[in-house]
Specification:
Helices cover about 70% and strands about 0% of the residues. It is mostly helical. The chain folds into 2 domains: about 55 residues, Arc Repressor Mutant, subunit A (Orthogonal Bundle); about 120 residues, Tetracycline Repressor, domain 2. Helix 4 packs parallel to helix 7, helix 6 crosses helix 7 and helix 7 packs across helix 8.
Length: about 190
C-alpha cells in the first residue's frame, strides 16, 4: 500500500474501526498504520503510542455522542419521547454500521480493573449517557427513580447490542429502545 499524507482525524477514524473490531489489546500500531496507509514511524509522528491513540479515539467518539446524541436530552423544544427517539436513532445508526458492537462497551470489559487510565475515560462516557437519560426520565419520575431507570436503560441497551452481535439480529436493539420509550410514556408526569 502506498504511503499517503493523512491528518489526525483520518487516523482516528481508521483506528476506531480497528479498535472496535480487534479490541485494544489485540490491536498493534502496525495494524493501524496499515489501515491508514502509513509506515509505523509516520503513525508515531502523530501519536506517541497506542495508549495515547486509544485515548484520542475515545475522546473523539465521546465528543461525537456528546454533541450529536446526549445534547438532545437537554433540548427544551423537544418532548421526552422525541428525545429518547433521537438518542435511539443515533445509537442505532452507530451500532448498525459496525459488526463489532459498541466501542465503549467493548473497552469497558477489556479495561476494567487493569487499565485505569483508559477505563476512567470509558466510564466518563457512560456517566454522561446516564445523566442524559436521567434528565429525560426526571420529567416523569422522581430523581432517584429516574437515575435508576437511566442506569438500567444503558445496561439494557448494552446487553441488546451484545445479543444483536451474537445473533446478527438488529431487532434486539430496536425492541430495547421501544421498551425504554414505552417506559417513559407510561409514567405519569412527576408533578401530577
Amino acid at each position: 500500500m502506498p504511503i499517503q499524507k493523512v491528518d489526525a482525524k483520518f487516523i482516528l477514524k481508521q483506528s476506531l474501526k480497528i479498535f472496535r473490531s480487534k479490541g485494544y489489546n489485540h490491536t498493534s500500531m502496525q495494524d493501524i498504520a496499515l489501515a491508514c496507509g502509513l509506515t509505523k514511524g509516520s503513525l508515531y509522528h502523530h501519536f506517541p503510542g497506542k495508549k495515547q491513540l486509544m485515548k484520542a479515539v475515545i475522546k473523539y467518539m465521546h465528543n461525537y455522542f456528546s454533541k450529536e446524541a446526549f445534547g438532545h436530552a437537554y433540548d427544551e423544544q423537544l418532548g421526552g419521547k422525541q428525545k429518547l427517539q433521537l438518542l435511539a436513532d443515533i445509537g442505532e445508526s452507530q451500532y448498525f454500521a459496525s459488526d463489532y458492537g459498541c466501542l465503549f462497551g467493548n473497552l469497558a470489559l477489556e479495561t476494567a480493573g487493569n487499565m485505569p487510565e483508559l477505563f476512567e475515560e470509558v466510564k466518563s462516557f457512560f456517566d454522561e449517557w446516564t445523566a442524559a437519560l436521567t434528565h429525560i426520565f426526571s420529567e416523569r419520575y422522581p430523581a432517584e427513580e429516574a437515575k435508576i431507570i437511566a442506569q438500567d436503560s444503558v445496561a439494557q441497551i448494552q446487553g441488546a447490542v451484545m445479543m444483536m452481535r451474537i445473533y446478527s439480529d438488529k431487532q434486539f436493539l430496536k425492541r430495547t429502545h421501544e421498551k425504554i420509550i414505552r417506559l417513559y410514556e407510561k409514567a405519569p408526569c412527576v408533578n401530577e
